[in-house]
Amino acid sequence: MKIKLVFYSLLLLGSLTACQKTAPKTELPPMEQLRGMWKMLNHEVKNSQGVWEDHPWMKGGTGYIIYDGLGHMAVHFTPKDYNKTKINWSNNVSKEEERPLYEAFSAKDSISTLANYVYTAKCRILEGDIIEHQKLSHGNPEYFTETVQRKFEINQDTLYLYPISEIGKRRVKWVRVN
């Protein structure tokens, strides 16, 4: 009788212990890992000593990138203080001090001069850590329909995107927006 009691007690204890073990984590597919909205922390280049530092192009700027998880994305970078620009892009510019600024910028000049960078794209994973952006629209008409590739790394809520041509030299660092 005591042997049966000990046997059933051990069996019960073993069953309870087995239930407490967590199931192994399954890694999400890459497109699902990218899904969501990310805010740019900085745009970095590696200096001659091999240390990452802010690239002057977007130093102090801001940006967002969104992946919908279904094969679409959008990105927008704006330089520091872009939101303080006094240019009114409407056709009804009424303030006299803004009119010369508005008239001075052609569509092409405004894009390159203000360094506002935006595009939307279809996207797909080519290999485990390479994503391709097939642009559908771009703030600069010269880059419409361009296709670019990025290596990506995700470390918890931080995303690193590296242009394929500059892996290890340039990257954009993003943090997930909840």
How does this structure look, described?
An eight-stranded antiparallel barrel has the order 1-3-4-5-6-7-8-9. The mean pLDDT is 79. The longest helix has 19 residues, at 2-20. It is 21% helix and 39% strand. The protein has a domain at 28-79 and 115-177: Uncharacterised protein PF14869 family, DUF4488 (Lipocalin, Beta Barrel), CATH 2.40.128.490. The radius of gyration is 25 Å and the shape is globular. The termini are far apart. With 178 residues, it is an alpha+beta fold.
Which SSEs are present, and which pair or pack?
Elements: H1 2-20, H2 30-34, E1 36-46, E2 52-54, E3 62-67, E4 72-78, H3 99-104, H4 107-114, E5 117-127, E6 130-138, E7 147-155, E8 158-163, E9 170-177
Antiparallel strand pairs: 1-2, 1-3, 1-9, 3-4, 4-5, 5-6, 6-7, 7-8, 8-9
Q: What keyword list fits this structure?
A:
single chain, 178 residues, alpha+beta, Lipocalin, eight-stranded antiparallel β-barrel, 4 helices, 9 strands, 21% helix, 39% strand
- Any idea what the CATH superfamily of the domain at 28-79 and 115-177 is called? Uncharacterised protein PF14869 family, DUF4488
Count of β-strands = 9
Q: What are the segments in which pLDDT stays under 50 over at least 5 consecutive residues?
A: none
Question: What would you call the structural class?
Answer: alpha+beta
- CATH class type of the domain at 28-79 and 115-177: Mainly Beta
Rg measurement, Å: 25 Å
* Number of DSSP helical runs: 4
> What is the correct CATH architecture of the domain at 28-79 and 115-177?
Beta Barrel
Read across the widest sheet, the strand sequence of neighbours is 1-3-4-5-6-7-8-9
Largest sheet: 8 strands, antiparallel, barrel
- Oligomeric status: single chain
- Overall mean pLDDT score? 79
Terminal CA distance: 59 Å
Helix content: 10-25%
CATH topology call of the domain at 28-79 and 115-177: Lipocalin
Strand content: 35-45%
**H/E series:** HHEEEEHHEEEEE
Shape: globular
